[in-house]
Every structure is written in C-alpha cells, then in structure tokens.
Amino acid sequence: MKYFYHFLAFSLFGMLFSCNSSNEENMEFREIKITEADIISFDEVVDEIEFIPFLIPEDSPLKLSANEPHLEIDDKIYFSVGDFRDASIHVFALNGKYEQTFKKQGDGPEEYPYINGIDLIDDKLAIWDQRGTFKLYNKTNFDFEGVKKLAGVDINFIPFYQSLGDGKWILVDDYSGEVDENSYYPVFQLLNEKTEEIKPLSPKTREVTANLIEGQIAEMSDKSYILNFGASDTVYHFKNDSIKPWIKLNLADNNLPEDSKLDPEYFFENILLNQANNINVGTAIAANDIVRIAVFGIKKSPEIIQDDLDSFPIQHLYIQYPSMEFKVTKAFGAFGGKGYEKDGYFYEVLFAENILAYLESNYFGKYAAQLEAAIENLVDEEDPILLKYNVRVK
C-alpha cells in the first residue's frame, strides 16, 4: 500500500458454503472476463444496506478526518482515523452512539507509538505494529494485558497478515529488492509458530506490486482463503496448507503486459495516468462468501482529476465463492485499503468530504434517501457515517 495507496488517499482525501466434494469440483481454475458492459449500478447488487451515523456529542467533539482509518467490530465499534499524530481509538455502540476514547500513545512498554491496525485476539483489543507484534488491551477499560509477538518472524515490514488458527499465519512479504533470476519475488509467507518455521508460498510477482497493494487475504466460511495482490492476473485459493490458482482475471483483454511490471515509472505514467492498461489493484475482502476485489481501468475515465472522487476508473468486482459468478460496480470508499467485514456484511467509513460527491453523482441510487436521513441525524455534518451492506450476485 505504498505509492498507489497514498496517491489515491491524498488525491481523493482512499452464501455460506460448507466444504464438500462438489464444491471442490467447482474450484477448477478458470478465466472470467470483465468488460465495461458488465458494470452496473451499486444499488443493483445491494441486498441489505444501513447507514450508521457516528453520533458524537457536541460537548465531546472528535477530529475524525479522512486519513487511513482502522476499524474493528464485535459488540462495539472500535475506530481510529490512523493519524500518527493522534493514535486514539474511539469506541461506539453498534448504533453509532459515541461511548469513550482510548489512547496510550507513546514509547513506553505499555504504549504504542502509532496504530497500523486494530484486531481482536483472545477477546482483547490488539494494536498491530506491522513488524510481527501486537500490544493487547482490555476492551472495556483499555488496561494493558501484554504483548503477542509472532514466533519465528524476521521480516522488517509486514503489510498484511491472516491468522489461520493453531499458531499458523499467512504473512505478506514486503519487497526487499531481492528477486530471482527472472526478476520475481514471493508475495506470501506461511508461518508455523509452533516450529518457528516460515516458508514462501508459490505465488510470485514483480517490482510494480510493491507500489500497489502488496497482498491481501480474505477468509471464506469453509476456513479456506482467497489471496490477491496488485498487478496479478491470477487470484489464488489457499486450503490445508496448499495454494493453487482460483481465477484468471481477463480485464477487457487489456491486462498489463508482464514485462511492464518491471518498470514502475512506466506503470505510473502510462497505466495510472494515461489508462493504457487495466490492472488488478490487489485488494481482497469477503463477506458471506462474496469476495470483493478492486480493479482499475475497465471503464476509462475521460480525465483523471486528482481531487475528484468520480474521475478515477476503479471498479469493485464481487465474486461468489465457489461458483465464480460475479457482478461489477463503480468502486467507492478506501480504494487502496482492505475495507472491513463482520458477520457477512461489508463496512466502509464515509467521510464528510466525500459524502456530498456520492449524493451529487447519485452513487447509492434508490438508497440515497437513507444516506440523507443519516446525515440529518448527525450532530455535526462533518462527522463520518459508517456504511454496512451485503450484496447478491445471483
């Protein structure tokens, strides 16, 4: 989430299935082709939707600006804007009502310098440092409850991770500059904490991925995982310590040529700005066994304007697992980030500076009135709104 993520962030502000033999047969690797004709409006794929206003009292104002937000949801909503200058965690009820703020920012042993991620580990709130360590806090009073360090990890920077349970993890490997004889490097590492062994998984990529989304993992209901990374033409499926190709993405017969992935300068000037080719951005998140992936360029933009949300040609591809049926809509939200999921719903934080653009463009279609009603319930119109939704592709 380097150049591309920050470019977008600053330019724009950023069927349950059980495991059985028939499902395995449906998992045969095949290509899906996405064209401009496949793009439909967002309200055509929505099954359920809710706009939850963050209700912050006037006497306790919070600065909730659009940075690189972090969100975790269980019986409460834990939210941080990701601002390194003020690494606070704000707690809200599930209806959006503000309850309290936690902050233990600092360099002490029970403190964290900044927030690179929020998670829940053993019913504790976990602050991730992107180097293999979590600091754990009580969810109610934020008392410090220890440190969880991934055993056997010697990676300077871990852009993303996924716990597989039983001491196993998939870690995204940051590009170190080291490549093989064909200029590829491994994207994912499989860690076994019990043996402290770490080994690369088979997918490899080239340098340009380091400037996109370096890798993300989405958990499915059968405890398998979908793996994706920037500029990849293939999306992968991981199960029982084995990984294999799941889907080949044909992006309107205009995928980025393999050799172009060696030249980031060419990529940004000709792909990002001139829209010469279409690319898989590299995101992966799943809700109710529907995987959401961001792609760039299927429908070209007349002009990319850096401060205009609607000018970026990014689409959300929703793929049903394991059938591979799909729908495509214009994207929204934190394009370079993973987004959030809980109990079969996708979540996105809508910040005030972008909500007006969504209304003006009628992005939410027949659900726009619900968004307007949520705005009316805000104490301050500058406060964000949490979008909760799920989709249907059949």
From TrEMBL:
Stretch forming the signal peptide: 1-23
UniProt protein name: 6-bladed beta-propeller
Organism of origin: Belliella calami
Keywords on record: Signal
One protein family per Pfam: DUF5128
Top-rank taxon, per record: Bacteria
